[in-house]
């Protein structure tokens, strides 16, 4: 038996969970799902139907990405993500999830929200980006000299923000944020968590993650 992670490659919440699992080398069996056809096995564990979901060996179910990050980093924290995160990691992540993410969604899917222009949604999302920029002018990472849980929980969302209109982002007045994002995207760790897997629904194949991740598990 091994812990089972229900994941969706492009979901930023699932990315932050996979980042912490990969960083901590806590092996799980990865089941790649598609959001339009969620497997009954996952919905039975977590009826709210969001990814990521982690079923632990004990049977306990973690259905919030931050809980999965904390679980993984409490198993092992070789990169010091939790160690270098004093309490204020929560303030950054709460702002990301509650304030930035709703505007990011509206900016990204602006056709579904015709009340305002995409630029207006972007400007509202930029309040958070500007605060990140201010922080990164003072310290290389959000919480100081070391990369932490806060950077890793937020970077997948900033990546999504940047990719809505990459040309705009690259000329926007956020050089520190651009460099912080680039370092993340270019990292071996990020590349390792973005490998593609066949969906579990179709193939019933699950994969060892992170090590020998592409080997189907018996
Ligand atoms: N608070 C949850 C949010 C997870 C979430 O909203 N995930 C999205 C995908 S990025 C999802 O599963 N949405 C359900 C759907 O689209 O059907 C967490 O942190 O894990």
Automatic annotation (TrEMBL):
Q: Which domain of life is it from?
A: Bacteria
Alphabetized InterPro entries for the sequence: Glutathione-S-Trfase_C_sf, Glutathione_S-Trfase, Glutathione_S-Trfase_N, GST_C, GST_Omega/HSP26, Thioredoxin-like_sf
Q: Name one Pfam family in it.
A: GST_N_3
Instruction: List the CDD domains hit by this protein, alphabetically.
Output: GST_C_5, GST_N_Omega_like
Report the residue ranges that make up the GST N-terminal domain in this protein.
Answer: 1-80
What name goes with this protein?
Answer: Glutathione S-transferase
Native species: Agarivorans gilvus
């Amino acid at each position: 038996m091994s812990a089972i992670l229900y994941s969706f490659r492009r979901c930023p919440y699932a990315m932050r969970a996979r980042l912490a699992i990969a960083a901590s080398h806590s092996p799980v069996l990865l089941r790649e799902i598609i959001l339009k056809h969620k497997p009954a096995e996952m919905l039975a564990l977590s009826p709210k139907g969001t990814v990521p979901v982690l079923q632990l060996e004990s049977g306990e179910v973690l259905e919030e990405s931050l809980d999965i990050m904390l679980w993984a980093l409490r198993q092992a924290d070789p990169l010091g993500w939790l160690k270098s995160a004093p309490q204020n990691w929560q303030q950054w992540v709460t702002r990301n999830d509650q304030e930035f993410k709703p505007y990011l969604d509206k900016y990204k899917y602006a056709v579904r929200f015709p009340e305002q222009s995409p630029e207006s949604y972007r400007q509202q999302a930029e309040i958070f980006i500007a605060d990140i920029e201010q922080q990164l002018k003072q310290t290389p990472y959000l919480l100081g000299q070391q990369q932490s849980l806060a950077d890793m929980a937020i970077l997948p969302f900033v990546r999504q923000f940047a990719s809505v209109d990459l040309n705009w982002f690259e000329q926007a007045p956020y050089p520190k944020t651009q460099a912080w994002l680039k370092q993340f995207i270019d990292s071996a760790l990020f590349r390792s968590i973005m490998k593609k897997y066949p969906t579990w629904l179709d193939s019933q194949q699950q994969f060892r993650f992170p090590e020998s991740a592409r080997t189907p598990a018996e």
